[in-house]
Design brief:
Oligomer: single chain
Enzyme class: oxidoreductase
Structural class: mainly alpha
Pfam family, one: UPF0093
Mean pLDDT: 96
Low-confidence stretches: none
Distance between the termini: 28 Å
Strand content: under 5%
Largest sheet: none
GO molecular function: metal ion binding; protoporphyrinogen oxidase activity
Number of helices: 6
Helix content: over 70%
Radius of gyration: 18 Å
InterPro entries: HemJ-like
Number of strands: 0
Number of domains: 1
Membrane topology: Multi-pass membrane protein
Length: 149
């Protein structure tokens, strides 16, 4: 298995980067949709229903497959011999940030269900603030992987 992972390392790394990009696009965009949903659509209105469809399609068809593949290819990279230096801090920093990003993904899913039920209580401002979470986690991940501190 180790030999297989090592021989496909460039492919695994490339696919990991691609699905990270699609996942991040969703993590950045869904909270922005929530902002507009809160600020521009009354519960039960036609606009409310349009936002619900947009949110569902982004979450289910882009973000959920992306998070699964991010974890699959990421774990493949972790198990590829010679890639991770477990004596360094960077893999733990990256791992913690990825877990944080996964939590944020799940948090967005719960908020989407609240919109679906018409029970959202958060403001556009709170969604704007939460929209900064993936940016901060992304910075930790990129600096950890590139600088390998």
């Amino acid at each position: 298995m180790a030999e297989f992972l090592a021989s496909y390392y460039p492919w695994t790394k490339s696919l990991h980067i691609i699905v990270v990009l699609t996942w991040m696009a969703g993590l950045f965009y869904l909270p922005r949709i929530f902002v507009y949903h809160v600020e521009r659509a009354a519960v039960g209105s036609e606009t409310d229903e349009v936002f619900k469809v947009m949110e569902m399609k982004l979450y289910r068809y882009i973000m959920n497959p992306s998070i699964i593949l991010v974890w699959v290819f990421g774990l493949a990279l972790v198990f590829t011999p010679g890639i991770v230096d477990w004596g360094s801090v960077w893999p733990y920093a990256k791992g913690a940030a990825v877990i944080g990003m996964t939590w944020f993904h799940m948090w967005l899913g719960l908020r989407r269900k609240e919109f679906l039920a018409g029970t959202n209580t958060r403001t556009g401002r709170s969604y704007r603030m939460m929209n900064e979470v993936p940016t901060l986690l992304m910075l930790v991940i990129v600096f950890a992987v590139v600088l390998k501190f």
